[in-house]
Amino acid sequence: MSLFGRMFGGKDYPDLDPSNPAAEKIANVENQLEKMAKDYKEPLEVVPGDGTTYVFIGKPPKKFGVAWIENEEVKNFQTLAKEMGVETSVLQRMGEQLRSAYEHNQEAERYTAHLSECDITVTPSQDLKQEVDAIISDALH
């Protein structure tokens, strides 16, 4: 693993096989992931999806943030607060629910994907994606 990979990608996981469906999903949002890696300077763990890709930033389940890429746009809790008027108490509850969802799925397979500037962890877990989908969706309704 490269120096940046050690800094940003976290633990050593097997490489993501290019034939894995998650590899194509990662390729579709690679520009956004590269920018996030530069902006946050924290490990990124990506849960790829068809419409929305979720990114755990930092070191879940202890200290982390969550962002998501939707329609080529990166969104996060600040986006929810600013654009959607989601209250701080709701965001705090979401943080706890996301921590719990991550903990439920800690045994999911994880891989390393190599971007041009760093390595990221990829967790192609449909269960985790569905849990995060539900948590974010509930906050918006």
Describe the structure.
With 141 residues, the protein is an alpha+beta fold. It has helices spanning 3-9, 21-28, 30-40, 77-84, 88-104, 126-140, and strands spanning 44-47, 52-59, 63-70, 73-76, 111-114, 119-122. It is globular.
Features:
141 residues, 23% strand, 6 helices
Q: Over the alpha carbons, how many angstroms does the gyration radius reach?
A: 14 Å
Largest sheet, spatial ordering of strands: 4-3-2-1-6-5
What is the string of helix and strand elements?
HHHEEEEHHEEH
Question: Major sheet, described briefly?
Answer: 6 strands, mixed
Q: Structural class of the secondary elements?
A: alpha+beta
**How confident is the prediction overall: mean pLDDT?**
91
Our count of domains comes out at 1
- Provide the β-strand percentage band: 15-25%
Count of discrete alpha- or pi-helical segments spanning 4 or more residues: 6
Low-confidence stretches: 1-10
Q: What coarse outline follows from CA principal-axis ratios?
A: globular
Give the N-to-C terminal Cα separation: 42 Å
Question: Helical percent range?
Answer: 40-55%
**Based on DSSP secondary structure assignment, what is the total number of beta strands?**
6
